[in-house]
Design brief:
309 residues, rod-shaped, mainly alpha
Length: 309
């Protein structure tokens, strides 16, 4: 019985020591105010948050004090976040901006949302430089949701998805940017970047989904008249026996080549496609343009054979 009684007294003593009084709440509130005036925002935030927590225990006697603490917190979150962002402490700044938005204070929530895209973009850039593209995409997505018309953020998000091989999302964003752009250097650069990811995507699809690879490459060459993309388009179509596409795009693909051997290789495939489709006249015309490389001798022989028919 003696041991039980001692334990009970210890519990009562602990409860009494932890109980909060209105005076303590007000004292802490005043201390927070002093820190705020001194622009020690970090400490002021901690103290005001403690005031709010203590107020839940003390009750109605400190309701006005708690309400005032809640009023000051959103602006302190934003002001401290700005200071942290200037010091490149972006993770801590992001946490405080989230708190400001969650506070529901119309003015300071709006102010926080103006700053958030910059902070999220900075965090994304750090992740990008570390080649953590999934995290970069996560932060760029947050920035994009707050600033959907910011072309730079949208481009960086599209690039992040491309690096992650999330090509569908990457292409969707690139298409939006290109559609909204003009006939200028920036739009041309976007087309070039999208075409790069399309080539990578097509290379992955060649074996298992050649038809889709061909579709992607057709869009890629329309975006960027790139000899590599043209060559890959014809090779992919040839390997999948898609002779219609070779006939449709073969001449343009050959014209895009700057290397005579690659140009000849494309004409060789074009001649073969025409031959498969029964158009010997066009096949001979294409084969005669095979003037160099490993297919030159065969192309010459095919011309002779077709003329003999």
């Amino acid at each position: 019985m003696k041991k039980i009684l001692s334990a009970a007294l210890m519990v009562m003593a602990t409860f009494a020591a932890s109980a909060q009084t209105p005076g303590e709440v007000i004292a802490k509130y005043n201390e927070a105010g002093t820190k705020m005036e001194a622009q020690d925002f970090t400490t002021a935030i901690t103290l005001f948050e403690e005031v709010v927590a203590m107020g839940d225990t003390v009750g109605d006697e400190v309701a006005e004090t708690v309400a005032n603490a809640k009023k000051y917190l959103p602006q302190l979150y934003v002001r401290n976040a700005l200071a942290l962002a200037n010091a490149k402490e972006f993770e801590q700044a992001a946490v405080l901006l989230d708190k400001a938005v969650a506070s529901g204070d119309a003015t300071w929530s709006a102010n926080a949302k103006k700053v958030q895209p910059q902070v999220y973009s900075a965090l994304a850039a750090t992740a990008w430089n570390a080649e953590d593209f999934a995290t970069a995409a996560e932060y760029f997505q947050k920035a994009h949701e707050l600033a959907p018309n910011d072309a730079k953020v949208t481009t960086q998000l599209a690039e992040s998805y491309g690096k992650m091989k999330d090509y569908d999302n990457s292409f969707t964003l690139f298409r939006e940017l290109i559609a909204g752009g003009g006939d200028d250097e920036a739009t041309t650069a976007l087309k070039g970047r999208m075409a790069v990811y399309m080539l990578l995507n097509a290379q992955e699809l060649q074996e298992n989904d050649a038809d889709k690879a061909v579709e992607i490459l057709i869009e890629a060459v329309e975006l960027d008249d790139n000899p590599v993309a043209w060559e890959l388009l014809i090779n992919t179509a040839f390997n999948s026996e898609n002779y219609d596409k070779i006939v449709e795009f073969g001449d343009r693909a050959a014209e895009a080549q700057t290397d005579i051997i690659k140009k000849s290789n494309v004409y060789s495939m074009l001649g073969n496609a025409y031959e498969k489709k029964g158009n010997n006249v066009k096949a001979i015309e294409a084969y005669r343009k095979v003037t160099a490389g490993p297919n030159a001798a065969n192309a010459k022989a095919q011309v002779t054979a077709l003329q003999a028919q």
